[in-house]
Write a structure and sequence with these properties.
The complex is a heterodimer of chains A (82) and B (335). Chain A has 82 residues and is mostly helical. Helices cover 57% and strands 0% of the residues of chain A. Chain A has one domain: Non-ribosomal Peptide Synthetase Peptidyl Carrier Protein, Chain A, CATH 1.10.1200.10. The chains are: A mainly alpha (82), B alpha/beta (335). Chain B: Keywords: Acyltransferase, Cytoplasm, Fatty acid biosynthesis, Fatty acid metabolism, Lipid biosynthesis, Lipid metabolism, Multifunctional enzyme, Transferase.
């Protein structure tokens, strides 16, 4: 069953926390992966891969560059699940 | 009229690596040496790749010289001469002649003439592809002693202003001598390709494009770093795991993991994905040598042996992966 935006955010926050060591409550919708969370393009690919597994979605490499903020990723995943 | 029956080569049961060794480019190139033209820094390169220095060969050394150097070392270690070698396979993507092959020239240089000799084009997976072939040739009876060499002068394809791959690259050659064995020494190879991703690691333009537009100049290499990272980290770990399974061993039964030295972060992610215990020695030669493509696995294995991190008879999981995309993994017994 598709997850709600809140559930996707919670799951994504866990994945980001695992990859970066940041607390999950630092992963907020308006945060930029690069500028706020200091996530580089390789770590981003790790996060994307774990999201694909966790939420059973496919995120093509060419779409990853458009996922600037946590909110971008949450809405992308939520739509992809629909 | 009855037709005559032909004789086929008689197979032998097992093969193994009899010796491994290699040479690195003599020049030590620091991150500071390459950071300027890509507007980068020592810190960024270390964080991004784990590379501290890369080794590069001078203008007077070509890929044939590197291959010859590695070949001479393994022949000596195996206690053999060139005359004992009946097949030479050179894995390279940086030999400067489309033809003839590097292998024929190297075979002649090391006294292996008239051994069968050919090159393998499988980029950074070239060495593990060639080990797969050597294993099959020896066990089929088609060859007795196969000299496998991964040799690259990657610096010949470097664009100093390229931020995608050039700053990773180093020069060197690693070799292995493969021969018959009384016990199993090379596990089944798990290998394959994905040509749909042929642009992920690529030459900037084809050779014939220069005929039409000489201003293009000599081609260099580029890669889509994040795409390659994702593929290598997450799709290659299952390939490596399958090589373990096909060899009939588990992750806690091997003593070394020697992946292609592409990027330390790929290596770290693969270790995580494979769930390797801390007792497994890891090939991390990239930190000092850089990415030497087809040469990187034998160089990293040679270093683990030289540093006493592994011993003769230990089991090593090795996996090559790179442009193509292509990949090959197998478990081998360390000579």
């Amino acid at each position: 069953m598709a997850a709600t935006e809140q559930e996707v955010l919670a799951g994504l926050a866990e994945i980001v926390s695992e990859e970066t060591g940041l607390p999950t409550d630092a992963v907020l919708l308006e945060k930029s992966f690069t500028d706020d969370l200091d996530i580089d393009s390789l770590s981003m690919m790790t996060i994307v891969t774990h999201c694909e597994d966790k939420f059973d979605v496919r995120i093509p490499d060419e779409d990853v560059k458009n996922l600037t903020t946590v909110g971008d990723a949450v809405s992308y995943i939520t739509k992809a699940q629909a | 009229m009855t037709r005559a029956t032909i004789t086929q080569a008689q197979p032998t049961r097992y093969s193994r690596i009899l010796a491994v060794g290699g040479v690195r480019g003599e020049q030590v190139v620091t991150n500071d040496d390459v950071a300027g033209p890509i507007d980068s820094s020592d810190e960024w390169i270390r964080q991004r790749t784990g590379i501290v220095t890369r080794r590069r060969a001078g203008d007077d050394v070509d890929v044939l010289d590197l291959a010859e150097g590695a070949a001479r070392i393994v022949l000596e270690r195996a206690g053999l001469t060139g005359a004992d070698v009946d097949t030479v396979i050179v894995a390279t993507s940086t030999h400067q002649h489309q033809t003839p092959s590097a292998a024929a020239i190297v075979a002649d240089r090391v006294g292996a003439n008239p051994a069968a000799a050919y090159d393998v084009s499988a980029a950074c997976a070239g060495y593990t592809y060639a080990i797969a072939q050597a294993d099959a040739l020896v066990r089929s009876g088609a060859a007795q002693h196969v000299l496998v060499i991964g040799a690259e002068k990657m610096s010949g394809f470097v664009d100093p202003t390229d931020r995608t791959i050039s700053f990773l690259l180093g020069d060197g050659a690693g070799a292995a001598l493969v021969g018959p064995s009384d016990t199993p020494g090379i596990g089944p190879t798990v290998w394959g390709s994905d040509g749909s991703k042929h642009t992920a690691i690529r030459q900037t333009h084809a050779w014939d494009a220069i005929k039409d537009d000489p201003s293009l100049g000599y081609p260099t290499l580029r890669q889509d770093g994040p795409t390659v990272f994702k593929w290598a980290s997450f799709q290659m770990a299952p390939v490596a795991a399958k090589a373990l399974a096909e060899a009939g061993v588990s992750a806690d039964q091997i003593q070394a993991f020697v992946p292609h030295q592409a990027n330390m972060r790929i290596i770290d992610q693969m270790i995580k994905q494979l769930g390797l215990p801390e007792t497994v020695a890891i090939g991390r030669d990239i930190a000092d040598t850089g990415n030497t493509s087809a040469a990187s696995i034998p160089l990293a294995m040679d270093r683990l042996v030289a540093e006493g991190q592994v011993a003769s008879g230990d089991l090593a999981l090795q996996i090559g992966f790179g442009a193509g995309l292509v990949f090959a993994a197998q478990v081998v017994v360390i000579p």
